[in-house]
């Protein structure tokens, strides 16, 4: 009988594995995990403004919801915006009411979701694997690149991953245990989590959770027990959580079915209509990079899986069940015509749990501990090289070498992790790596991100525009849609595009190419501020600078 089966048998008898943090080492581990979690998930959430086209749109919808009385129809500057379900907007709207109008409110759903995922899966790790795996998971999860990036993004991706992680935590005991105690509670939890997944992303919640369960149950030889998840408590709770909003929104917005279900689910998957085409293997490097700095543990995880399959002792294996939740999202979205990194984020939490278990399994084995420790040091060294080689970002005023202190930090960490790893002290190597990621992120938030902010977000440009407009209108011209949406968020309204008919003295946010195009239209331009390569503030004046030829 292997360790996993033994733990499940203990759970079947009502004796889950215990791990009481009563020793000094355990207390230190928990303190380090708390520090890493705080820095990686909560520190610097307002160090830079909202970026890209999605963050400002989602945040604007949530802010309008918080300020109004319609909590059914998402609205962007007054018009229905039916591309996504409601859950992100609800949570962010609560954030706006609690914290006011700032980036913290917009990013609250993601960071709260990441924290909830960590708690749910650390419980699952302790339940099926024991204390060492749970303790390592608390270090690995917040310091994984994919998690710390998406946990501070005002998008739906992390919240969706959270709902699926909650569904996983509720489903695992029902599928893996022969006689789980509290079955009704697990069924209610599963139904509620699945309902929230549908409110977070739509039908993909049912597809990913359902297929993950079936594949995991097949791999762990527990397929008949999947029927426990289709009981009246699960189905009733799911319907109670998921259906009311869909019914109300469809009743109020007849176009909802076409816009949301057809265009943004079916067509997005089957056609390249949204122009996010990538090769079939796209998500392989996404997973490798997203799981850094724990990439070396992938080899140990795959070795453990191969050993389990070779011995044919995977019956009731929690690792085989988790594998289904990792494999299906990657395969499913690899078949999609549209691919974005966030699509496979639901695979990351169970993958990190498997990595934590592989590390815990290697702890008492000197050769394995040494190999994984040295592998982790090698990943840190590779990250150091990347920071040393990072080019300047002249458009944002960041000179070459601005992130070299991070390269130095990672280099020192690689040496320390390599030293303790070579001595077989894997736990120390993991602790060094996690603390290094946290310290590096803190340094980024404190020194680099404020300098990058004008070039990656519209926050500074909007502040300048508001000040220079002095209550007057602000127009835009020739901007990328990310900058258009961002300015509209920070200036709280739709910004009209400049035309030749606009009165003299108009304040326009544009870029250098847009300014040249305005001059070719006959406008006289006075440059007021050049915030970045993507945003400059100009005023149209009769005596401003003009172009008399078509040359740029």
- The sequence of SSEs as H and E is HHHEEHHHHHHHHHHHHHHHHHEHEHEE
Q: Give the proportion of residues in helices.
A: 55-70%
Oligomer: single chain
Structural class: mainly alpha
Describe the 3D structure:
This protein is mostly helical and 552 residues long. The chain has 3 domains: 3-362, no CATH class; 363-457; 459-540, no CATH class. 64% of the residues lie in helices and 5% in strands. The strands form 2 sheets. Strands 3-4-6-5 form a 4-stranded mixed beta sheet, with helices on both faces. Strand 5 (525-532) and strand 6 form a beta hairpin. Helix 2 (24-42) runs parallel beside helix 19 (426-456), helix 3 (54-67) crosses helix 5 (103-128) and helix 9 (183-201) crosses helix 10 (204-219). The N and C termini lie far apart (75 Å). The relative contact order is 0.10. The model is unreliable at 1-6 and 9-20 (pLDDT under 50).
How would you summarize this macromolecular structure in one to three sentences?
The chain is mainly α.
């Amino acid at each position: 009988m292997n360790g996993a089966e033994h733990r499940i048998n203990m759970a079947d008898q009502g004796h889950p594995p215990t791990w009481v943090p009563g020793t000094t080492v355990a207390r230190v581990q928990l303190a380090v995990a708390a520090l890493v979690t705080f820095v990686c998930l909560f520190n610097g959430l307002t160090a830079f403004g909202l970026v890209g086209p999605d963050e400002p749109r989602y945040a604007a919808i949530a802010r309008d919801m918080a300020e109004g009385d319609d909590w059914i129809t998402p609205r962007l500057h007054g018009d229905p915006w039916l591309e996504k379900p409601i859950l992100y907007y609800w949570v962010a709207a609560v954030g706006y009411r609690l914290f006011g109008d700032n980036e913290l409110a917009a990013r609250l759903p993601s960071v709260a979701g990441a924290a909830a995922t960590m708690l749910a899966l650390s419980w699952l790790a302790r339940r099926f694997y024991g204390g060492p795996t749970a303790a390592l998971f608390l270090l690995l999860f917040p310091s994984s690149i994919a998690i710390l990036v998406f946990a501070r993004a005002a998008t739906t991706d992390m919240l969706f991953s959270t709902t699926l992680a909650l569904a996983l935590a509720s489903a695992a005991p029902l599928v893996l245990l022969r006689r789980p105690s509290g079955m009704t509670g697990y069924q209610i939890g599963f139904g509620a989590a699945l309902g929230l997944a549908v409110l977070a992303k739509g039908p993909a919640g049912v597809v990913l959770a359902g297929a993950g369960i079936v594949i995991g149950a097949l791999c762990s030889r527990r397929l008949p027990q999947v029927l426990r998840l289709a009981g009246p408590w699960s189905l009733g709770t799911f319907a109670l959580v998921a259906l009311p909003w869909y019914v109300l929104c469809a009743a109020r917005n007849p176009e909802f079915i076409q816009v949301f279900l057809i265009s943004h689910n079916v067509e997005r998957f089957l056609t390249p209509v949204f122009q996010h085409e990538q090769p079939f293997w796209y998500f392989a490097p996404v997973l490798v990079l997203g799981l850094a700095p724990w990439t070396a543990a992938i080899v140990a995880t795959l070795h453990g899986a191969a050993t389990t399959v070779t011995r044919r002792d995977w019956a009731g294996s929690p690792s085989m069940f988790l594998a289904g939740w990792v494999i299906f999202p990657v395969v499913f979205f690899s078949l999609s015509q549209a691919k974005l990194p966030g699509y496979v984020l639901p695979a990351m939490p169970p993958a990190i749990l498997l990595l934590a278990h592989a590390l815990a399994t290697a702890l008492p084995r000197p050769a394995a501990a040494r190999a994984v420790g040295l592998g982790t040091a090698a990943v840190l060294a590779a990250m150091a090289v990347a920071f040393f080689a990072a080019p300047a970002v002249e458009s944002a005023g960041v000179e070459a070498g601005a992130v070299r202190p991070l390269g130095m930090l990672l280099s020192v960490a690689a040496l320390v992790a390599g030293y303790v790893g070579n001595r077989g002290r894997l736990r120390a190597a993991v602790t060094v790596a996690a603390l290094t990621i946290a310290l590096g992120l803190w340094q980024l938030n404190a020194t680099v991100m404020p300098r990058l902010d004008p070039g990656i977000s519209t926050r500074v440009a909007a502040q300048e525009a508001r000040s220079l407009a002095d209550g007057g209108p602000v127009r835009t011209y020739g901007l990328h849609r990310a900058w258009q949406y961002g300015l509209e968020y920070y200036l709280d309204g739709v910004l009209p595009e400049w035309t030749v008919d606009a009165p003299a003295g108009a304040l326009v946010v544009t870029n250098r190419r847009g300014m040249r195009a305005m001059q070719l239209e006959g406008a006289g331009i006075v440059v007021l501020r050049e915030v970045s390569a993507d945003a400059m503030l100009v005023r149209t004046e009769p005596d401003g600078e003009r172009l008399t030829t078509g040359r740029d």
